[in-house]
Amino acid sequence: MGEQFQSLDQVKASAIDMALRFGPKLIVAVLILGAGYLAARWAGGFTGRLLRRFRLEPPVRALIERVAQVLMFGLFAIMAMQNLGVELFPLIAGLGVAGAGVALALQGVLGNVAAGLVIIFTQPFHVGDYISIASEEGEVLDISLFSTTLGHTDRSKVVIPNRKIVGEILHNCGKIRRLALSVGIAYDSDVSAALQLIDEVLRANPKVLQTPAPVVGVVRLADANISIGINPWVAVPDYEAALNQINQAVLETFRANRIAPSVPQRAVRMLEA
Prior knowledge:
The structure is a single chain. This protein has helices spanning 2-51, 58-84, 88-105, 107-122, 191-204, 239-256; strands at residues 130-133, 136-143, 147-151, 157-161, 171-174, 176-178, 181-185, 208-209, 215-221, 226-231, 233-235. The chain is of the alpha+beta class and 273 residues long. The protein folds into 3 domains: 8-115, Helix Hairpins (Orthogonal Bundle), CATH 1.10.287.1260; 124-174, SH3 type barrels; 176-256, Alpha-Beta Plaits (2-Layer Sandwich), CATH 3.30.70. Strand 1 (130-133) and strand 2 (136-143) form a beta hairpin. The N and C termini lie far apart (126 Å). The model has no long low-confidence stretch (mean pLDDT 80).
């Protein structure tokens, strides 16, 4: 029993000695980390206010703000570890070895991050642009470090990993799209009148942009009709609605003005046996 009590006394003495030696340092380290958290928030806010003077995409601003926060907090974390007497060089070497292992295990994720940085800083497209890439197309809703999100007119979304975007052929329509419509009229119709009516329809539609000007003209002389191309520009969100409205308006206008649409015809010859 005496030996047990003696062991307990030794443990208690060691604990008290450790608390007296490292307790104040631990408290100071916690205070340093708390101050680092507040300083990191301040650094992020200050960086964000500073970046508002420049024309940067929201993902770029968010990334730079996050980097400023991490750097500021990392500085205070180093100060806290130095206060505790931690040797930084062996720790850095160990983190380097661990980082190499993590990099090998997360090659795909790191590839997305690297590609995301390329997209954010080279800016091949912006939020709100309509792009076509990797057999997918849609309006850019979000650009992050890991992926890019496209939106479709049916409210669905497509999330594309950034490494599937960098290095691919990209078709960027910007924030406007051109409608590719056509209508066929009979050869005995008044072509000039038809073109004038189509121009009036396009001017009356509020979704049709007047700059750049719509392109309307005869695009093909087919066997059974004259094909008129109708190519106005509209904003990306108005694409589907404008497509339906213009088709309906052209049809009703042609009917009201007796512009005859082309009717497919087929000649059948009956041969006697």
